[in-house]
Amino acid sequence: MKRMVRDCLRSTTSIDDVDLVDSMILEIKNLHVCAEDKEIIKGIDLKIADGEFHVLMGPNGSGKTTLGKAIMGYPKLKVTQGDILVDGKSILELKTDERAKLGIFLQFQNPVEIDGIGFVNFINASHGAINGPTKDVKKFLSEIKERSQRLHMKDGIQKRSLNQGFSGGEKKKAEILQMGMLRPKFAILDEPDSGLDIDAIKVVAENVNEIAKENGTGLLVITHYSRILNYMKPQFVHIMSSGKIIAEGDSSIIKTLEEKGYEAFVNEG
Ligand SMILES: Nc1ncnc2c1ncn2[C@@H]1O[C@H](COP(=O)(O)OP(=O)(O)OP(=O)(O)O)[C@@H](O)[C@H]1O
Ligand SMILES: [Mg+2]
User: Fold this and answer.
1) How far is the CA of 68 from the centre of ligand 1 (A)?
2) 65 in ligand 1 pocket by Cβ < 6 Å?
């Protein structure tokens, strides 16, 4: 996978000197991002190595989703300062699909419903765009089925249009199913737990853990709640407020957060 990503970096950036370091790193350096001329991200630094697990928390409207979208190259956002790098090379000039080819995956906070695009066809198209045409369709379909079962998704849901009429929880599971099929090197999961019932949180967390382990995925999980972290063990926790990281640490920081709320960090920051 690393070799593939590096080949892709070479071909998309015309750069030959991609360093052969042991681990791949997604690095955000002094990132400033504007939406409609309003600065939302105001100088963020973050480094995620493959296999690492980071959590990002912060009050509503602090810019967490915007950060995820900026990493993925959402066209309505403008990076005004700073850089986003994979293995030391800037990806700012790359389009969203090119970033996906590098192995970056974004799970949407609010997945959209697209009538007329079959769920399985969508996964097949994304998978094909990243890895080339599916050679063994039968194997591909049986992997989708197996992953759906692992996620406790209802039988038959795969035959529907993308997210069309899916419940809130089913949409989140559908995103994790896509993550499993696409085998990303870096995954930004934007509130994978919101709208999920207690059992589903556990199932989703276990599936994410498994997928990350299988692929050495570096994870950035955005969440408001510590419940999901009963089943996932982050190494790094970042607290964001008003477009900046105001506190960082290990998971012990979450206990302080639950006891004192964001205000304690905002005042310190
Ligand atoms: N395209 C846009 N145009 C104008 N403002 C925007 C745009 N996109 C985001 N914003 C604003 O940027 C701020 C940060 O939004 P964002 O969705 O990143 O927050 P968040 O931290 O993910 O919040 P939540 O926890 O509620 O999901 C909000 O005030 C939002 O209204
Ligand atoms: Mg958000």
Assistant:
1) 11
2) yes
- 15: CA distance to ligand 2 center in Å? 34
Domain membership flag for residue 160: no
For strands 25-35 and 114-118, give the pairing: unpaired
**Does the residue 136 lie in any domain?**
no
Cβ of 40 less than 6 Å from ligand 1: yes
Residues 66-96 pLDDT 10s: 999 999 999 999 999 999 999 999 999 999 9
What are the DSSP E strand ranges found in the chain? 25-35, 38-49, 53-57, 77-86, 89-90, 104-107, 114-118, 161-162, 186-190, 218-222, 236-241, 244-249
Other C-beta atoms lying within 10 Å of the C-beta of residue 235: 13
Distance in angstroms between the alpha carbons of the first and the last residue of the chain: 39
Ion ligand 2 neighbours (CB, 5 A) are 64-65, 109
Instruction: Give the ligand whose atoms come closest to the C-alpha of residue 243.
Output: 1
Range of the domain at 53: 2-113+187-268
The helix (run of H) or strand (run of E) holding residue 16 is none
Whether 35 is in the pocket of ligand 1, judged by its Cβ within 6 Å, is yes
pTM (2 d.p.):
0.90
17: domain CATH number is 3.40.50.300
pLDDT, one tens digit per residue, over 225-244 is 989 999 999 999 999 999 99
Q: Is residue 133 part of a domain?
A: no
